[in-house]
Each structure stands twice: as C-alpha cells, then as structure tokens.
C-alpha cells in the first residue's frame, strides 16, 4: 500500500497594479497539488539528457524516486487582476512527489516559498504537505 503526497497551498502574488480595491484579498489562489489518479506516475529525471542518466533511473527503487506532481484543483478558477502562476507545482514541491508505504508515512510539513519573476512580480506561498493513505 502506498500513500500519495498532496500539497495544499495558498499563494499570494503581488503585481504592481490592481484593477480595483475589490480585487485585493489576503490569498489570491488556494491550490491542491498532488498525484493525478487518472495519470500514470512519471519519474523526474536527474536533469541529464543522455541515455546513461535514463538507465540510472531504472536502478533507483520506485519508493526512492521523485515523481511529477500536477495541479488537481485551484480556487478561484481565474481572477481578473492576477493570473494563475504556472510555476506553482515546482514551488510547492521542489523535490517532486514521493510515495511511501503505509508503515513509513512522514508527518505533515510546512514549506514556504517566494519567487520573483523577470517582470518583478512576486509569487509568495505556503504549502502544507501531507500524505494520504
């Protein structure tokens, strides 16, 4: 039995101009990031592009590999003044998605992040990382 990791994240993006004061909120998006049950797990490669790196991945046990996470839900669907941050998955789970046995479930953890984009806008957030059984 394995458990899947999920990350409930609240993000706050600060952009220079807001269209109106009614667009100002404490949190811009609530995001649920984790394993998509409708997709097969895809392992994250170590960054190399040659065949030897791909072969090395075959020798890593499945429970020690990192997998690609995806956005499962986010609320609201869209906001007029703030676009949904495309980099949110890598900010929430920089080490990727990990699977664990039922006897080896880590305790919940909090992960904070801040990202300054090329245009000067910011994405700040806090992830609550927990494992489902």
Automatic annotation (TrEMBL):
Q: Which SMART domains does the protein's record reference?
A: uDENN
- Mind telling me which InterPro entries this protein's record contains? DEN5A/B, uDENN_dom
Q: One Pfam family, short name please?
A: uDENN
Q: Which Gene Ontology MF annotations are present?
A: guanyl-nucleotide exchange factor activity; small GTPase binding
Q: Domain uDENN spans what residues?
A: 23-131
Its recorded name reads UDENN domain-containing protein
